[in-house]
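PROTEIN DESIGN WORKSHEET
SECTION A - STRUCTURE
LENGTH: 216
TOKENS:
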């Protein structure tokens, strides 16, 4: 096991459209420009098994019913695979890992959103993650109307939507509030970031925290 303070593992969390992928690209570019080794992954996905599961989980079709319990295990299966196939080998080489969603998504979506017990989810996450947790998690916090506006904008640009975006407003409010609870519970690790600001402002905030926590 890596020594905790050497774990250069950062997760990005938050609702759909909050700007996770945008900010990961920014941080990745900045670290690469310093000559740092970086592995960027996304959840679900980033392994052959994970990408198959991602397609299943994103698909929105009446023929493909996914029960909440099945959904939980599909996300966990993708995580178990990426931890063993990508994250552990990269950490062993002292690479940075930037993850577009990770274990906190399960706590927010399956816990807050779907109502599974947080204690149960933490145990399941432990199995999936082999006990690994991000050193730092950024929760990009955005109100539902603002997130919906960004998703609509992106849909106009790419024409793509997905299954989870069809959930109710109440579902997303529960997810958002679960993320807030996580930040209060683990304030050192989980940092709530006001994502309503410009891409540059959010990126500057994130960089300040990263350089402080990791001593850059
Ligand atoms: N700070 C920002 N201000 C305005 N628009 C933004 C900002 N950050 C991202 N966007 C835009 O909002 C849309 C969603 O951003 P992005 O894809 O990074 O979100 P995401 O959190 O990765 O969403 P998803 O969970 O659906 O993958 C994109 O069109 C992006 O260009
Ligand atoms: Mg994204």
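SECTION B - SEQUENCE
RESIDUE ASSIGNMENT:
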């Amino acid at each position: 096991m890596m020594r905790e303070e050497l774990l250069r593992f950062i997760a990005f969390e938050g609702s759909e459209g909050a700007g996770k992928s945008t900010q990961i690209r920014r941080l990745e570019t900045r670290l690469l420009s310093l000559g740092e080794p970086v592995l960027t992954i996304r959840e679900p996905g980033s392994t052959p098994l994970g990408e198959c599961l991602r397609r299943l989980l994103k698909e929105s079709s009446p023929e493909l019913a996914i029960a909440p319990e099945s959904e939980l295990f599909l996300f966990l299966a993708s995580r178990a695979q990426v931890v063993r196939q990508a994250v552990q080998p990269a950490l062993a080489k002292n690479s940075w890992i930037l993850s577009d969603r990770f274990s906190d998504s399960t706590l927010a979506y399956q816990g807050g959103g779907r109502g599974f017990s947080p204690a149960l989810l933490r145990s399941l996450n432990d199995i999936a993650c082999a006990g690994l947790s991000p050193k730092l998690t950024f929760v990009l916090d955005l109100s539902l109307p603002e997130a919906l506006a960004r998703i609509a904008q992106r849909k106009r640009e790419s024409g793509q939507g997905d299954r989870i975006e069809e959930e109710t407003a109440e579902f997303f409010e529960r997810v958002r509030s679960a993320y807030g609870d996580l930040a209060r519970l683990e304030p050192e690790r989980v940092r709530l970031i006001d994502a309503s600001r410009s891409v540059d402002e959010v990126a500057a905030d994130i960089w300040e925290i990263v350089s402080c926590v990791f001593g850059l």
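SECTION C - NOTES
The domain at 4-214 is CATH 3.40.50.300 (Rossmann fold).
Helices lie at 20-33, 48-58, 68-92, 103-113, 118-129, 144-158, 169-185, 199-214.
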